[in-house]
């Protein structure tokens, strides 16, 4: 494939945007080469500035669960835009989407909309601290909860790709309140709680981790966290920015039957527009301003275009009883296809999959936490990534990311992908 125009656009961008990108993982730093510039996208396909067509397995890092330029979302946004793009005043549609989200997701009475997953997680932690009157939080190595200060301690995603576990600019004062646990290691969490008795406000976790590749929770792990939180007066925060409205209508809480105290959303909930949200039962949400003392705000929060996109997306998912089964079946089919050809070509690998989240790790050992995820062979991943790109398949440009399956993918697309993996594996 030719990427002449993309390369030229990147060179221009680098002059005026740090690293040429507005979010680091886009920059191909982990895999080398220059990023692809997108011209447009429809359904399962991206069309780049050099007129290449790519089958997209990132889908805007999750939001496009029903495909790009999904008609109901596009129409809702156009219609709203004609009536004004922002007012900074309440609108009816905010209540409509809130009612729908509260109906779809278990264990929440109220929801507050923000503009990104980062904002959602940052606000959820402040609310947990305000509610419990305690300062410390527990997060898991390899989990990413956005780029706010408290979370940039062994974060996954781009922070792992670049090997920068702690960002300069995060103060020691902030870092000392974030305790780090090993994913899937409940004993480690229990020990941290014991050593910090009555000081921990919340445990925040990706109920299925997606920022160190896809890492499922081990049987019983989430339930143990639930029990530890309940018996120690700690709030359990599920960061469902990836899993929300993806693993089930009610997200990971519904899929695993575990109740979180606060749930964070992003990605799918905005249908591709900048939306995040956090939600909880009344007792907790009523601590938020203007009802309570915990302050949180946003000029563009609940923006009409964003709400219109989100409402159209959630309505489509809510009205389709088969969509999550279809997504699961497609992902399983892809898993089987890829595993078969990798094995036939003697490529050492482990594939993790939950619902429509899947990732390929180039190591034989089980991938259960950040340490095991980091053992994957990055040189193999780089060759795999570029090989697939050359075949017109676009996966995330980092081994620490999940592939997001969209319902717009056909079984033919999935077969094309397995064939491409077969071809690429022969030269790995
Ligand atoms: N939480 C999780 C689980 C995420 O995957 C992400 C982004 N990938 C975030 C939070 C942050 O969301 P945003 O990029 O919208 O700020």
TrEMBL record:
The lineage of its organism: Bacteria, Pseudomonadati, Bacteroidota, Flavobacteriia, Flavobacteriales. Belongs to the class-III pyridoxal-phosphate-dependent aminotransferase family. HemL subfamily. Keywords: Cytoplasm, Isomerase, Porphyrin biosynthesis, Pyridoxal phosphate. GO terms for biological process: protoporphyrinogen IX biosynthetic process. It comes from the Bacteria. Pathway: Porphyrin-containing compound metabolism; protoporphyrin-IX biosynthesis; 5-aminolevulinate from L-glutamyl-tRNA(Glu): step 2/2. The modification N6-(pyridoxal phosphate)lysine is found at residue 267. Its main location: cytoplasm. Its cofactor is pyridoxal 5'-phosphate. The keyword S-adenosyl-L-methionine does not apply. It holds the Pfam family Aminotran_3. This is Glutamate-1-semialdehyde 2,1-aminomutase. It is found in: Cytoplasm. It catalyses: (S)-4-amino-5-oxopentanoate = 5-aminolevulinate. Homodimer. GO terms for cellular component: cytoplasm. Its EC number is 5.4.3.8. GO terms for molecular function: glutamate-1-semialdehyde 2,1-aminomutase activity; pyridoxal phosphate binding; transaminase activity.
């Amino acid at each position: 494939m030719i990427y002449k125009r993309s390369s030229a656009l990147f060179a221009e961008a680098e002059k005026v945007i740090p690293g040429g990108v507005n979010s680091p993982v886009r920059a191909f730093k982990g895999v080398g080469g220059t990023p692809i510039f997108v011209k447009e996208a429809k359904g399962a396909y991206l069309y780049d500035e050099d007129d290449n067509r790519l089958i997209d397995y990132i889908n805007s890092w999750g939001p496009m669960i029903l495909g790009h330029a999904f008609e109901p979302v596009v129409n809702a946004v156009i219609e709203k835009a004609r009536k004004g793009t922002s007012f900074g005043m309440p609108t009816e549609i905010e209540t409509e989407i809130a009612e729908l989200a509260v109906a779809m997701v278990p264990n929440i009475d109220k929801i507050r909309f923000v503009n990104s997953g980062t904002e959602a997680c940052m606000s959820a932690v402040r609310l947990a601290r305000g509610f419990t009157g305690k300062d410390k939080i527990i997060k898991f190595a390899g989990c990413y909860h956005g780029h706010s200060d408290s979370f940039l301690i062994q974060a996954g995603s781009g922070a792992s790709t670049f090997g920068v576990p702690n960002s300069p600019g995060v103060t020691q004062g902030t870092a000392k309140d974030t305790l780090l646990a090993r994913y899937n290691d409940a004993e480690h969490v229990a020990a941290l709680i014991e050593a910090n008795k009555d000081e921990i406000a919340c445990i925040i976790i990706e109920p299925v981790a997606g920022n160190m590749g896809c890492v499922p929770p081990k049987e019983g792990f989430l339930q143990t966290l639930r029990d530890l939180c309940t018996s120690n007066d700690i709030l359990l925060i599920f960061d469902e920015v990836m899993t929300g409205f993806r693993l089930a209508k009610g997200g990971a809480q519904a899929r695993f039957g575990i109740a979180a105290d606060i749930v964070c959303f992003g990605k799918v909930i905005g249908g591709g527009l900048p939306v995040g949200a956090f939600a909880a039962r009344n007792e907790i949400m009523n601590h938020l301003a203007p009802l309570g003392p915990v302050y949180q705000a946003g000029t563009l929060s609940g923006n009409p275009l964003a709400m219109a996109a989100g409402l159209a997306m959630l309505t489509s998912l809510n009205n389709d009883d088969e969509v999550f089964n279809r997504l699961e079946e497609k992902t399983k089919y892809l898993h089987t296809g890829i595993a078969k050809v990798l094995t036939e070509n003697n490529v050492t690998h482990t594939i993790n999959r939950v619902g429509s989240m899947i990732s390929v790790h180039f190591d034989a050992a089980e991938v259960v936490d950040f340490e095991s995820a980091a053992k994957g062979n990055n040189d193999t991943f780089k060759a795999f990534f570029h090989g697939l790109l050359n075949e017109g398949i676009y996966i995330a440009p980092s081994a620490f990311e999940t592939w997001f399956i969209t319902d717009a993918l056909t079984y033919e697309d999935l077969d094309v992908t397995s064939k491409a993996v077969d071809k690429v594996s022969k030269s790995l």
